[in-house]
Write a structure and sequence with these properties.
495 residues; alpha/beta; FAD/NAD(P)-binding domain; 2 domains; five-stranded parallel β-sheet
């Protein structure tokens, strides 16, 4: 990586930001509650989405934004942890974290690091390059992330405050509160629920005989062993390849579907009309779109398929949903409709479900969060349980109160995770990032401004900073006429 090229890019990005009036004029008023500082926004999650949201808020003049991240520096998001693909699954031309700053785009960074010819020859960006690129964006934009912090509870305080309970490794894990006017949960793909492993695996096998694709896996210890991978998604194939590349004796992917899907609905979704305006559809239309997208599922990317099929001892079996699992004579046996499969270790690539009550930070609020099943009832032939269990969100990703007894401050929490798909068509992935961040930022600035509109009006009443000097030829200023009486401010309540 030419050091000079990256330094030049850093300088160019800062100039472009300055040309767009960076930093913007700060306009929110400092607040305290019971002597404690009240932050404008607490963002939970310091990966690509959390950093982009914090950057977007700063561009709008909201400076008091605190970003909390559970991982150690450099391990934010999946890119250096459980993501085991060689490259991203999205096309290289998609942008997002840059928020429209040309020198912050992936292409600008990649060309500075590897050269323009390398970009032209590139198929998709490697996950390690992507992680490095995100670090560059965070550094240039000045987003400060506090690492090794677990947010364990969100407690409403009155109608307009949320107490964010956290444990910081730097202070020994003691429980510490933060007060926030708004909160964003940018907590990853599973951030509104949990990773799922079929019960037959959990109950039929010892804990050391299986792992989920989201777990830390010591692949070196799988050398020489027969691996059974359950699931037909991209991560299942990624983990099969990773095991074989670390010396596994074989890797068999067991897919419940009778055939692998060939078309990827995510590629269809990647146009501005859908990504920007899906949330403007009525509930029935959104449900139909999402039900079709969920039914289609996604195939493994071509690069992942090629990676697997060029490795010896790799196989795929369709129609092989797991019916039973047991250990027998030192082997693992998985029973399926197409026969029994024997191996030494199981990797479950079986995804996740939306289930807010399983998230520590949402457990207190889960009974009060409106889900899609609370707001929309499809026809019997259009039922879809995974959609029904997702939170029903407003157009700016805010949670919705299930009933009148729910705390008002619940609506100050925005959920920027995959569970926003039914409401906003947003998976919180790279392809939708710029559209989703725009909605979150606009929603937060609206909330903050309406909170203090009366204060801004009071400021306007006393505003007297001169912009014009009027005088006669001799330089003697003319007398100013007395100002007319000011009208009173009428507050209008809107739903």
């Amino acid at each position: 990586m030419p050091h000079a090229a990256l330094v030049q890019l850093d300088m160019q990005a800062r100039r472009e930001m300055a040309l767009l009036n960076w930093p913007a004029r700060a306009w929110t008023a400092p607040r305290r509650f019971d002597g404690a500082i009240v932050h404008d926004t607490v963002v939970v999650g310091g990966g690509q989405n959390g950093v982009a949201i914090a950057f977007g808020l700063a561009r709008e003049g909201v400076r008091d934004v605190v970003v909390q991240e559970r991982a150690v520096p450099g391990a934010e998001g999946p890119w250096r942890t459980y993501a085991r693909m060689r490259s991203l699954r999205t096309p290289k031309h998609l942008t997002g974290p840059d928020l429209g700053i040309p020198s912050l785009t992936p292409r600008a960074w990649y060309e500075a690091r590897h050269g323009s010819e390398a970009w032209a020859a590139l198929g998709k960006i490697s996950r390690h390059d992507w992680a490095d690129y995100l670090g560059f964006v965070a550094r240039v934009t000045g987003v400060d992330v506090t690492h090794r912090v677990d947010v364990v509870d969100l407690e409403p305080v009155g109608p307009d405050l949320v107490r964010v309970h956290r444990r910081c490794a730097q202070t020994g894990g003691a429980l510490e509160p933060l007060l926030a006017r708004t909160v964003v949960l940018a907590t990853g793909i599973e951030g509104a629920g949990r990773w799922v492993t079929p019960r037959v695996l959990r109950e039929g096998l010892a804990p050391d005989k299986w792992a989920h694709t989201a777990n830390t896996i010591d692949f070196a210890r799988l050398a020489g062993r027969r691996i059974l991978v359950v699931g037909g998604g991209a991560s299942a194939f990624d983990n099969a390849a990773e095991a074989l590349e670390h010396g596994a004796a074989s890797a068999t992917v067991l897919v419940r579907r009778t055939a692998l899907p060939l078309a990827n609905p995510n590629r269809w979704m990647e146009f501005a009309g859908f990504l920007r305006h899906f949330a403007d559809l009525d509930d029935a239309s959104r449900w139909r779109f999402m039900r079709r997208i969920f039914e289609m599922s996604q195939p493994p990317p071509q690069e992942t398929w090629n990676r697997c099929t060029t490795l010896p001892c790799f196989s795929v079996v369709t129609g092989a949903g797991i019916e039973a699992a047991r250990e027998e004579a030192g082997e693992i046996v998985l029973e399926t409709p197409v026969g029994a499969f024997r191996g030494d270790f199981v990797i479950a690539g079986t995804g996740f479900v939306a289930d807010p009550g399983t998230r520590p930070e949402l457990a207190r609020l889960a009974p009060h969060i409106a889900l899609w099943r609370d707001r929309y009832t499809p026809a019997p032939d259009e039922a879809c349980q995974p959609l029904a269990e997702c939170p029903y969100l407003t157009p700016d990703f805010s949670l919705v109160r299930r009933d009148a007894d729910a705390p008002e401050a619940l609506e100050r929490i925005r959920l920027y995770t995959f569970a926003a798909m039914p409401s906003l068509g947003s998976s919180a992935g790279i392809s939708v990032l710029k559209f989703g961040v725009e909605r979150v930022v606009r929603g937060i600035t609206r909330t903050l401004f309406l909170d203090e509109a009366h204060e801004h009006y009071a400021s306007l009443l006393t505003y007297d900073e001169p912009e014009l000097e009027i005088g006669i030829a001799t330089g003697t200023p003319a007398a100013e006429p007395a100002p007319p009486p000011l009208p009173s401010l009428t507050t209008v309540s809107r739903p």
